[in-house]
Each structure stands twice: as C-alpha cells, then as structure tokens.
Specification:
Shape: globular
Number of helices: 3
Number of strands: 7
Length: about 150
C-alpha cells in the first residue's frame, strides 16, 4: 500500500505587514514571521490578512482593519488576490478618506509584497463595493501604492 502522506514541514516566512503611523499619514512596515506549510501561497496570503486583522505588535503603530473583521475566503489567480471579508470590515470602519486609504492600502501593500501577487480585489460578503466608506474606488483590482509607505 502507498505510504501515508506526510504533512509538509512548517516554514517560517518573514513578511511585511503595513500598519498606520500615529499621524495616519503613512503606512509603516512591521516585519513578522508567519508559520506556513512550505510554499503555500494562498495559506501565506491568508495568514497575512489575518495578521493585519490582529493588529500591530509595535506600540507606535495603529491597526488599520476594523475590529470584528474576518477573512471569509481568499483566492489567488494570475497575480490577482481576491480577498473576501465579512460585513464588519465595512460596517465597523470609522470612515474618513485618510482612514479608508490606510485600511485599503495596508491590505493591498502587504499582499503585493508577496511573490506572485500584483493586484488585490476586495470583496465584502462576496460582493464588489464601489467604495468602503465613500472615498476610495475599490470596485476594480488595486495595485501597490508605494507613495503611502514611510521611507
């Protein structure tokens, strides 16, 4: 009989998670090691989103994802990560153009830091939204925004 499949060894992958600075002017990278089964891109991207939801570990950085948000699903195809979040992602967001930009680009920039992801499509409960809170167009896939990252 064939030997039972051995689970792949867990690997720690270092990623950049982007959180807001205390002025909500820029995103700041926080390096974090994430345990995943070796080279599973979808698992790594999902872990990145979940770590963003959990918030920063450094006191000087601020969470960008509303509390209560959760990742419903994540798919990656042809360089596009489709991220489906629950309703709290929209309904519990505090709003404001700056807050909206910090939230959207913390996700987009953190995911596009990963190899093989160039664009991010955000969904809430499986549906495309025009905007999160009326400021930033998110109905189309979004690309990295390096201008918002603190140098």
């Amino acid at each position: 009989p064939p030997a039972p499949e051995q689970p792949k060894p867990a690997a720690t992958q270092e990623v950049n998670l982007y959180f807001s600075d205390d002025q909500a002017m820029y995103l700041v990278a926080e390096k974090r090691g994430i345990q995943i089964e070796s080279s599973d891109q979808k698992q790594l991207a999902s872990a990145v989103v979940n770590e963003l939801i959990a918030g920063p570990k450094q006191a000087r950085l601020h969470a960008t994802i509303p509390q209560g948000s959760s990742l419903l699903s994540l798919e990656i195809a042809d360089g596009l990560a489709t991220v489906n979040l629950n309703q709290d992602f929209q309904s519990k967001h505090s709003g404001g153009s700056t807050g909206e930009m910090m939230t959207i680009y913390s996700l987009v920039n953190s995911l596009t830091d990963l190899q093989g992801i160039q664009q991010v499509q955000l969904l809430v409960e499986g549906k495309k939204l025009e905007t999160l809170k009326g400021h930033l167009e998110i109905s189309q896939p979004l690309t990295r925004n390096p201008d918002i990252i603190k140098k």
